[in-house]
């Protein structure tokens, strides 16, 4: 296998599982972590070269320009999971979230695309979320970033497919990766939303603990990479085929109610 893949956030969860899966299939794999030197052995995939990347830093992103020029496959997986009532989200937290979840992956893709175009082959996988298709209360900022990422992918794939480059979005549902422990949360001490917010978070954590393994998502990412003509979207977890089928036939109001009931919200 002469293809080189770069997977962001390759030290845990979906990113680590994807790096392991690609390396096992013979790809040359580069994985990123904010601080590769501090990674313990259990968070390193065999056969993966780890690079430093902080998506909140434009300087850190630009430092990878030379390596990205030789990348055939880019998996934009790293990101932040954020929760909070819409009216209470701090402006600086929103700016950071969009930098990490949207602007950072977009810039990485821009840096990789010229080399892909010259070689006549490329795959860019945006790891989104089913919440971009099934929005949830108190997750508006996270939903917005994943919807934006999907929008970039859906639009740009038409520009780049004539050059042999395909962009696609993989939308995981509830995945058991421990991300609930790293989720950022913003809520005012006297927030009128506190009861529903905490109810939603408890249900979200419960659903994620019962979610599918990261390895299953990695398998879908590999499937998208190796497809001759990747689809615009792949979804996995949370009974994705059934959920999307119902959305096509149910009124929007009923779909919204179903999503919120799954998270113990009745309004």
TrEMBL record:
GO terms for cellular component: membrane. InterPro entries: NAD(P)-bd_dom_sf, Sc_DH/Rdtase_CS, SDR_fam. It comes from the Bacteria. Coiled coil: none annotated. Pfam families: adh_short (PF00106). GO terms for molecular function: oxidoreductase activity. Keywords: Oxidoreductase. SUPFAM superfamilies: NAD(P)-binding Rossmann-fold domains. Belongs to the short-chain dehydrogenases/reductases (SDR) family. PANTHER family: DEHYDROGENASE/REDUCTASE SDR FAMILY MEMBER 7B (PTHR44196), DEHYDROGENASE_REDUCTASE SDR FAMILY MEMBER 7B (PTHR44196:SF1). This is Short-subunit dehydrogenase. It comes from Actinoplanes digitatis.
